Amino acid sequence: MRMSRWLWLSLIVAVSTPALAFDQRYTDWTALLRTNVVEVEHGDASRVDYAAIKHQVGQLDAIARELSGVTAQQYAGWTQARREAFLINAYNAFTVKLIVDHYPGIGSIKDIGGLFTSPWKIDFFSLLGHQTHLNAIEARLRKPGNFDDPRIHFAINCASIGCPMLRSEAYTAEKLDTQLDDQTRRFLSDHSRNRYAGGRLEVSKIFDWYAADFSHGWHGITSVKQFFAAHAADLTADAAGQTRIRAQKVSINYLDYDWHLNGSTTP
Fold first, then answer.
1. Average pLDDT of every residue of the chain
2. Coil vs helix vs strand at 152
3. Which in 17, 141, 145, 161 has the greatest CB count within 10 A?
4. For position 43, what pLDDT does the model report?
């Protein structure tokens, strides 16, 4: 049976044309962030214009589809930095999508879901070939042996004022280390959420909830107190306080977490 010329040419094109490569620069995600994320608190925090993104939902959905299109095989072939950047960007993009899908009418991400349904366990997107939820991305980032990088907690954003800021650019493998260091500095320098006062440290509940993630030996650090010691200058300008923090001779209190939506406008 003779193959038609059209079918023959189609097969040649299919074999010789490679699949479109995934954009490791996250150009569209960065463009959306730069337009809709505003830095506040001297650059140590940010607010998100969810109302504006609601009117750009087509762009957000296209970003979500691109992230969902990455296969497990593609992901496995990437460097560790590319995998880490991808997961952070996916977590943040799908969190924004979750908020926008329910906006307006919510004052907190915790308003989404039901009495027995956490917003972080709703299977509302596909990633690496599976229908999944935000907690699954966080679990992959936190799994011992994958990255062992506690700085991820200053990069992933839960759409709440208590969270570290949503950065106004995507994370990329080439800049990842610098970006994560910068996020760490900004969060610790925001003294509404982390501070040295009255001879003690008053810090975000993140350091309580995820204390184990600071014990995996990242840069030789095996505890939250050691982490604070390495960042004493960000936590306070007081020389005596810095000395006490570096000596790990300071008590730690955890502040209440502010779950109010980190929006730039009232829903």
1. 92
2. helix
3. 141
4. 87
